[in-house]
Specification:
Elements: H1 13-42, H2 46-82, H3 86-123, H4 127-140, H5 144-159, H6 164-187, H7 192-216, H8 225-257, H9 261-297, H10 301-328, H11 341-374, H12 377-401, H13 405-430
GO molecular function: antiporter activity; xenobiotic transmembrane transporter activity
Membrane topology: Multi-pass membrane protein
Protein name: MATE family efflux transporter
Length: about 450
């Protein structure tokens, strides 16, 4: 561990909030749109909502890749920005955008080929749900390049501590899509297909706005193989970490599907609310990535450690606020998405676990941001793999074997959060993540 002789003052709560609140708007925009989409489709009936659950879970692979790119880019860009090299920080974003476009195009093509077998596997013995999910997925996946370009753009902008422009870009695109979704679904009678068109449109518009932001920076837009290789090495560990998350969520959807369409639909409602809360809580992590990365880039190790403690406390308080809101809304929130009494009854089985996890998740997500900003992604990779392979996945398949229903699935998610919390607290206390200087 390397320390600095004269660390700068720890950023105030106002500074953290100044980065976190615009980031909150960006992070909340996508899951909020998905909640609108879920509500619109939910009133088409149980089968379309279950189909959206399957298709949406598969498409989260694109969102996961985008988050990998954004988080890796934020850490590298923030280090350069902290060292006084803004042009170098933006150049990291250019290279990340090339990776984003290539990955998004690959996902869009793969979805056209694999939609049917993936949907059939995840839907179990329900061919109507599988058919709807495959149709939705083929169209929605066309927005994957835009989605990944937008997340890469968010990454470098967070690194240079510009969280306001991304807020305008993402909110504008998702507002347009939220207006278009009910018009396409109900006004033009396109049903589930209208949802997919609105989704792909929002992602494409958002991606185009972030490409424009790179162009106006007047930096070279050419690919640089040496930087791409370094980003891929960093991305490898984040990718494996993300793969563990995706294995968990896709497996959870598959297990929920085997408890029936009502359970799967309820899981979709609870999961999307959970994702909304998670993305909102991640705003604190975004501030941590930017501030911790900049502090370490500037050689201020003591400042970075103080930031970690402050960020963890803010995460705990934020998670507790969400727990109060979600717990108090138990009798109302699920009914906004489906008026099916069986879906509501199933949602109530997941709700206590959902609410109880939120304060713990606030700390987990905050400390994730600290370690990502520090570039300590190898440890995060190992911890997430252990949590998934030894906690979440065994728990939910045991829940299936013992017929514990949706409560068992969400108990598995709670176990996943608890294992990660213990590991993150131990790592932060050890101080081994504190390494100053620019990442090469």
């Amino acid at each position: 561990m390397t320390t600095s002789a004269a660390p700068a003052a720890t950023p105030s709560l106002r500074k953290v909030a100044g980065l976190a609140l615009p980031a909150l708007a960006v992070l909340a925009a996508e899951p909020l749109y998905v909640l609108v989409d879920t509500a619109v489709v939910g009133h088409l009936g149980r089968t379309p909502l279950a189909a959206l659950a399957i298709g949406g879970n598969v498409l989260t692979v694109a969102a996961w890749l985008g988050i990998v790119l954004a988080y890796g880019t934020t850490g590298r860009s923030a280090r350069r920005y902290g060292a006084g090299d803004r042009a170098g920080a933006v150049a990291e974003g250019v290279q990340a955008s090339w990776l984003a476009f290539a990955a998004g195009a690959l996902i869009a093509v793969a979805a056209q080929v694999l939609a049917d077998p993936l949907a059939s596997t995840l839907a179990g013995n329900n061919p109507d749900v599988a058919a709807g999910a495959a149709r939705w997925l083929r169209i929605a996946a066309l927005g994957a390049p835009g989605l990944l370009l937008a997340t890469a753009g968010n990454g470098w902008m967070r690194g240079v501590q510009d969280t306001r422009r991304p807020m305008y870009y993402v909110l504008g695109a998702n507002l347009l899509s939220a207006i278009a979704c009910p018009i396409l679904v109900y006004g033009l009678h396109l049903g589930l297909i209208g949802s997919a068109i609105a989704n792909a449109g929002a992602q494409t518009v958002s991606g185009a706005l972030f490409v424009r932001a790179l162009v106006v920076e007047r930096v070279s837009l050419r690919p640089r193989p040496e930087v791409l290789r370094r980003q891929l090495v960093l991305g490898r560990d984040l990718l494996l970490r993300g793969a563990a998350f995706q294995a968990c969520f896709i497996s959870a959807a598959a297990v929920a599907a085997r408890f029936g369409a009502a359970a799967l639909a309820a899981h979709q409602v609870a999961l999307q609310l959970w994702m909304f809360c998670a993305f909102a809580l991640d705003a604190v992590a975004i501030a941590a990535q930017s501030l911790v990365g900049a502090a370490l880039g500037a050689g201020a190790a003591t400042q970075a450690q103080a930031l970690a403690r402050r960020i963890a406390a803010i995460g705990l308080a934020s998670g507790a606020v969400f727990a109060v809101v979600i717990g108090g809304g138990a009798g109302v929130l699920p009914k906004l998405f489906s008026d099916d009494p069986q879906v509501f009854a199933q949602a109530m089985r997941a709700w206590p676990w959902f609410v109880g996890m939120l304060p713990l998740a606030g700390v987990v997500f905050a400390l994730d941001g600290v370690l990502i900003g520090a570039g300590d992604v190898r440890y995060m990779r190992n911890l997430t793999l252990v949590s998934a392979l030894c906690g979440f996945l065994p728990a939910i398949w045991i829940a299936y074997g013992l017929r514990l229903g949706l409560a068992g699935v969400w108990a598995g998610l709670a176990l996943f959060i608890v294992i990660r919390l213990v590991g993150l607290l131990a790592r932060v206390r050890s101080g081994r993540w504190v390494v100053v200087g620019v990442l090469r």
